[in-house]
Amino acid sequence: MNLKRTCVSLATGLLSAALAAGVALAPRVSAQGTARPRGCNQAMADSLAFVEVPGHPFEPILSKDGCSCFVPLISANPRSPNGVAVLRRGDGKVTVVRVIPVEPEPTGMVLTHDGKLLVVADGDQVVFMDTARMVSGRGDPILGYISDGENAGSVYVNCTADDRYLFVSDEHAQAITVIDLGKARGSGFQPDAIVGKIPVGRAPIALTFSPDE
After folding, report:
1. Tens digit of pLDDT for each residue in 80-100?
2. pTM, whole model, 2 decimals?
3. 88: closest CA among 80, 99, 79, 78?
4. Distances in Å between the alpha carbon of 157 and those of 31, 46, 68, 126, 179?
5. Structural domains of the chain sorted by starting position, each given as residue range(s) with its CATH number in brackets
């Protein structure tokens, strides 16, 4: 995959839609009754913005409230770590708040529908991260890992609408790993939460469910 771009366009796809939506904070109302957007509701200064990030971005994921954006980064040089960047949207700007180190190669991610858990495909493993800790900077945001097997090449993840099952594309292993996400969360992310593997042939990547799942 070509990951040579070193900035994130915040006016493309899902990210731009959510930035335009501004659902995070209630608007401030003036004495005349006119709503004044504030915080992450405030309109951006420009319709197109680029945010420099310390690495090669893969796939931005918005927090449930739309105020934060999580971006997996693959190292751009020996001094920049692999990790997940936390970007904050507020006062008409988007800024990088912190980068949480995640090795060896964070790529595709999914946010559970309750907004509490960010799941990251990461080479031979899947990483589970607490979004509240990621945003606040307090406490260890990495809750645990589940290995997909040696040289699995985990590259994308997706979870069902009820957050019960997690599907992982193992590009090198030519398989989809299925994880009981409820069991994983309840057990501290132990490997016995893996339900099984579905052989699919060469290099599976993106995971998309049909409407009826």
Report:
1. 889 999 999 988 889 999 999
2. 0.81
3. 99
4. 48, 32, 20, 9, 10
5. 1-23+37-101 (no CATH), 103-213 (2.130.10.10)
